[in-house]
Design a protein that fits this description.
The chain has 55 residues and is mainly α. It has one helix and no strands.
């Protein structure tokens, strides 16, 4: 069964993983900005229970 032979597939997997992690990922991360932390305290939303007509 050729699927069980790791010779070509392991090299392809490692090459693609290294290409992604060393070349593509830093280029993509430079475009995304992270949210800066705020000192604002979180507010909780007021929730009201649903009034069921049969209770």
């Amino acid at each position: 069964m050729p699927q069980l032979n790791p010779n070509p597939w392991f090299y392809i997997m490692m090459t693609s993983w290294l290409t992604f992690s060393l070349i593509i990922q830093p280029k993509l991360l430079s475009f995304t900005t992270t949210n800066s932390p705020h000192n604002k305290t979180p507010t909780t939303a007021k929730t009201f229970p649903w009034t069921w007509p049969w209770t």
